[in-house]
Amino acid sequence: MAGDAMNKAILTCALPILALLSACNMGGKDSASGDGAAQGDLAGARIGGPFTLTNQDGKPVRWDDFKGQYRLVYFGYTYCPDICPVDLQRIMQGFAQFEKASPQLAAKVQPMLISVDPARDTPAVLKTYVAAFHPRLIGLTGTPDQIAKVAKDFAVIYGKEDSAGASDYLVSHSRTPYLFGPDGQPIALVPVDDPGTPDVDEGAPDKVRAFLQQWIK
Questions:
Q1: How far is CA 76 from the centre of its chain?
Q2: Is 50 contained in some domain?
Q3: Which residues contact 188 (CB under 8 A, 6 or more apart)?
Q4: Helix count and strand count (H, E) for the chain
Q5: 173 annotated ligand binder
């Protein structure tokens, strides 16, 4: 599909940006502390920032509302025909497995979908959509300017695809689901399937569960 191909291209473009952001922390250990504590591949990266958006109930939500919680952040949109629903399903299935195995730890995590299609993703549309994946998943939208700023702060690339003669459209976007810590700082990228490795399922729910078990303390 056109949307699938464009998403793959944008993922390819986004990876060097993320690598650059996290290049100084790719050692995987906290050498500064000397205690051998593991660090995620995004530790120290300049990703994230304060925002105020609108949730699926039409209420304002601020980034700082989640202080003290881990934040599992996925950028996508409800009209996405293939990538977003598959990613979200598998991420939230992995989260559900983690929740069943470690309910107290899972309670420290807030999963959220931030829309890159604010024109169509109204709170009412988001409410129905996120409920299909997990009761804890929240959907966030805003004005085009608000979404553009959040996307920039979170190193997310997106763009509307117009097709001649078509009444509908797709939105291409980078696949960069993040895990942030209780302090709001980025930890690591949440596993998603890599289209370049068809024989390996990097985004399987059990791998998402293992990822969460590794980082949620």
A1: 8
A2: no
A3: 40, 41, 42, 43, 178, 179, 211, 215
A4: 6, 9
A5: yes
84 is in an annotated binding site: yes
81 part of a folded domain: yes
Average pLDDT over residues 68-82: 97
- In this structure, what token pair is assigned to residue 38? 């593991």
Residue at token pair 């409410």: 127
Q: What is the mean pLDDT of residues 120-139?
A: 98
The pair of three-digit structure tokens given for residue 217, joined into one six-digit string: 């303390």
**Domain assignment present for 164:** yes
Region 11-17 average pLDDT:
40
Residue appearing with tokens 């169509």: 120
**Which pLDDT belongs to residue 195?**
85
Domain ranges, residue 106: 55-215
Q: The domain spanning residue 144 has which CATH number?
A: 3.40.30.10
Give the bridge partners for 172, in sequence order.
Answer: 159
Residue range 131-159: average pLDDT? 98
Instruction: Quote the pLDDT of residue 168.
Output: 86
